[in-house]
Please model this.
Amino acid sequence: MKPAFSICVYCGSRPGVDSEFAAAATAVGSWIGGHGGQLVYGGGRTGLMGMVAHATLQAGGRVVGIIPKALVEKELAEQRCDELHIVGTMHERKRMMAERADAFLALPGGIGTLEELFEAWTWRQLGYHDKPVGLLNIAGYYDKLFDFLDASVRHQFMSDWQMKLICHGADPAVLLRELVQGAGLSPPPRLDGI
Ligand code: AMP
Model:
C-alpha cells in the first residue's frame, strides 16, 4: 500500500547525552509509522538515526534507507529497511533522500545533520523545491543556532522571509502534522489511537 506521506529525517549518527533526544527520535518514528507514513533516512542503525528507523518499523511504517557504500560498516546499515539503497557517493544519497520525500525534518545532530538541514533550507529559498522544512528543537539544543540566525537577520545577511521558510518547535507530533499538511497531504488517524 502506498504510504500516506514520506518524511526525510536528518539526525545524529550518535545518540547525544540527554535521554530527551532518544525519546524525541522514538516519538518521531512512532508518529510516522502510526499514521501510515514512510521514513526516508540515512540507512544506519547508530544513534538517533537508528532510533527513528526502529520506532517507525515498530509502529508499522515503511522505511527507506539510503547509505553510501563507504558508510555501510561505520553507520551499521539497517537491514530491516523496506528498501535499503547502497549508493556510490554522499551526493547520490542526498539527492535520492530529497527526491523520495514530501517534507524534511531535522532532529538534534552534529555537522552531518546541520549540512543536510541547511542544504534542504537553502534549496527551498532558491526554489529548487517547494517541500516544507522543519527543525525539532529538543531540550533547547538549537536555541543558540536560532540566536545566531536572528543575528544574521539583524546584520542583514538574511531576511525574515528566509527564516519563515523553516518550521520549528519542540513537539514532534505538532511539527510533523504541520510538515505533512504543508506538503498538501493529510495524515490519516492513528490506527492504534495514540
Ligand atoms: P552527524 O549529524 O554528524 O552525526 O551525521 C548525521 C548523518 O549525516 C550521518 O549519516 C552522516 O553520514 C551524514 N553526513 C555526514 N557528512 C555529510 C555531508 N557532507 N552531507 C550529508 N550528510 C552527511
About this structure: The pocket of adenosine monophosphate is lined by residues 12-14, 42, 44, 71, 75, 90, 94, 109-113, 115-116 (CB under 6 Å). The chain has a mean pLDDT of 96. Residues 6-182 form a domain with the Rossmann fold fold (CATH 3.40.50.450).
